[in-house]
Specification:
Layout (H helix, E strand, L loop, with lengths): L2 H12 L3 H10 L6 H7 L18 H16 L20 H12 L4 H10 L6 H7 L13 H16 L1
Helix pairs in contact: 1-8, 2-4, 4-5, 5-8, 6-8
Length: about 160
């Protein structure tokens, strides 16, 4: 699954309107128009990557969208006095791992909520396995999140929010 596929599924699962997509990207620091959002939300095939009717959502744009989604759902968080500036996440991290982490924050989900969402989609994992997916890259228990978990998590979100 590429970032465009993830955004298409996320938009469907949470019923996000096009104008809200524009706002979310803006909150994340990326200016896009409604027409550009439609081009981002176009399903792409390998041979269509050079098509000008499609905008490829790269990792930085995807990360900006997820950050904007957190702000959209929870509001902007001002840094506390004496708190160091947040560093940009390393882009070595899988888009799927980022997706799970940032959706957990944006939707105020607990680990139990996430396990239930996955179970609704027919996937059973332990709390330890979920914890490994949510860890920082480089941690000894970090686990790469494959497309199966991400796809089923988005499917579970659709079941929960569109029910």
């Amino acid at each position: 699954m590429n970032n465009n596929d993830i955004l298409i599924r996320l938009r469907y699962a949470l019923d996000i309107k096009n104008v809200d997509m524009v706002e979310i990207f803006k909150l994340g620091g990326v200016e896009v128009t409604k027409d550009e959002v439609l081009k981002i939300l176009t399903k792409i095939n390998e041979e269509e990557e050079d098509n000008e009717d499609v905008i490829i959502c790269d990792d930085q744009m995807f990360d900006a969208f997820l950050n904007g989604f957190i702000i959209f759902k929870r509001g902007k968080q001002e840094p506390k006095p004496g708190q160091p500036e947040r560093q940009a996440p390393s882009l070595k991290e899988s888009s799927n791992n980022l997706l799970l982490k940032k959706l957990k924050i944006a939707l105020s989900l607990t680990s139990e909520d996430m396990l239930q969402i996955l179970e609704d989609a027919g996937v059973r994992i332990t709390k330890g396995e979920l914890s490994a997916l949510l860890r920082k890259v480089g941690h000894k228990n970090y686990k790469f999140c494959g497309d199966r978990y991400a796809r089923n998590f988005l499917k579970g979100l659709a079941i929960r929010y569109r029910g």
